Amino acid sequence: MTSPSKQFRILIFGALLLGALFFFFHHQSEKDSSPAKPVATFTPQPPVTVKSSVPTASGIPAKNQQAVQKQEELTKDLSAAEKKQWQIFTEVLLSKNDNDPRLDHELRHLSPTLKKALETQYSLLPDEKRNERGLVVFLVSRDLSSVEDLQFLESVYQESPCLSLANCGVRGDNDPHFSGLNETSLLYPQVVGLYQLEQQLKARPELLKDPRFRQQTEEVLRSAERFPVPAIQDRARGLKDKYGL
Amino acid sequence: MTSLAKGLMAATVTLTLSASAMALEFDSDVPANIKQQATEDLNFMYQLQGSGQTPFHQQIFKSLDGKAYKEFFESHIQSLGMDSCGGGAAVACVIPYYDAHKMWLTQNFVNFSHPQIARLMVMYHESRHSESAHGFWMHDTCPTPFLDKDGHDMKSIWTGAPLAGEPACDSTAFGSYGSSTILLANVAKYCSNCSDKVKMDANIYATDQLGRIDKEQVKQSMIDDFAK
Q1: What digits encode the pLDDT tens for the residues B31-68?
Q2: CB-based contact B201 A98, cutoff 8 Å
Q3: What is the pLDDT of residue A38?
Q4: B-chain residues within 8 Å CB-CB of A235?
Q5: Which site among A104, A108, A164, A177 would you substitute to test the B interface, given the most B Cβ atoms closer than 10 Å to its Cβ?
Q6: For residues A137 and A141, what is the distance between their CA atoms, to the nearest angstrom?
Q7: Which residues contact A202 (CB under 8 A, 6 or more apart)?
Q8: B5 at the A interface (CB within 8 A)?
């Protein structure tokens, strides 16, 4: 038999326990009823449809069937040494490994013929391959050595801006959380060109003593200023001011 | 699974992950190409070596080397899964109220052509959002007006649309934007086994991320830090 005082204590304990459980589950259900909230304020968007590219024998994507055929002819005029460099370029591009040491050891001071092949490759790549196109701009402009190099650079600012990473021809969403990342990648080839041009002029200011080189550099910057994206125009103006171009 | 059970699981994960790094796991529905890309990207990060670091970097990541980056990432993120992260152009996200130590990747992680260090920037940015002790480093709403030091509107670099009022800023150097900027700026300056391209990319993307710091004195303290 339980004494009345003991029964009373059990009753009180039970009431407290029930109260605590009620409080816990009520609180928990309030938390559960709120939707899972991501850290960034996502504006829900439909999934993107990525524009497809055309596969090639080399594995390097091409923008269309015509580009596939042109790709196959790219290396026919290259020497054995250049073909070896081309093979390295292809491997790096396909691996998506931007830290492949061969980029710096094997792909410096490229011959005019190899540069020409790279420039053609640039035009055959799908527009959406921003990093791959930027890689070509990087390799050509890292050691600017001729007016032809600058003419290629100028052409990069004469193309239409890429509107979205899924399909350069269609404007995508602009979620502010990562818009900086996405927008920088949209502009990547153009940003790389001006970045490398600045690095080259800083390291080798004597380049501008050559009147043809100077004139073509001015053409590049004029094209970049006309590129219809504020960040590129600002960078180009900054370079013009800095080097009196 | 009920949301209560998910909540209890998340709490358990928070408790068990407080001290040390754990091996990263992929959900079974992560496509092979995404798993491979994420693994290769993280392996690249885990083998970096540096010739120095800035004080802010030391404060957040301890040192500029792969071991420290691995410990940082794996002490924040335990597993990787697939989600739309709100759809659109999102690449990755952390949803802390669901599971703070899980990172979600989208198909855009492999479908979009970002440089490698930019993909990693996203992963480290998101991992910072897993820190419950700091309120998950929630982003600031960019102030209105949001001006640079010369008094000009801070804008989208692409569209020129003002960032004022957007939930896409940090007021501290140690939040997700700040810490990923510090990471990139240090890689650009001190990485001793990075290619020229990686260093260039780190510089390019750091410059953009710095623009998301909405307090001028904080931004200046970061610029000063990068000069050390």
Answers
A1: 999 999 999 999 999 999 999 999 999 999 999 999 99
A2: yes
A3: 42
A4: none
A5: A177
A6: 6
A7: none
A8: no
| Tokens read off for B15 | 């408790």
A88 vs chain B: nearest CA distance in angstroms?
Answer: 15
Residues A173, A166: Cα–Cα separation, whole Å: 10
Is residue B200 within 8 A of residue A138, CB to CB? The reply is yes
Short-list B132, B123, B131, CA closest to B103:
B123
- Rounded to an integer, what distance in angstroms lies between the CA atom of residue B123 and that of residue B125? 5
Q: Which helix (H) or strand (E) holds B26?
A: strand B25-26
Any idea which residue has 């052509």 for tokens? Answer: B113
Average pLDDT rounded to a whole number, residues A127-143: 97
A76 touching B (Cβ < 8 Å): no
CB B110 within 8 A of CB B34: yes
Backbone angles phi, psi at B149, to 5 degrees: -65, -20
For chains A and B, CB pairs below 8 A equal 196
Q: Inspect the interface and report whether the beta carbons of A175 and B86 lie closer than 8 Å.
A: yes
Among A93, A90, A37, CA closest to B95: A37
Contacts of residue A42, Cβ cutoff 8 Å, sequence gap at least 6: A175, A177, B85, B86, B87, B90, B93
Angle between helix B116-128 and B32-46 (nearest 10): 90
Q: How far is CA A77 from each of CA A14, A82, A140, B24, rounded to the nearest angstrom?
A: 90, 9, 18, 48
pLDDT-based confidence at B19, cuts 50/70/90?
very low
Tokens of A245: 């171009």
Tell me the two tokens of residue B17.
Answer: 């992950």
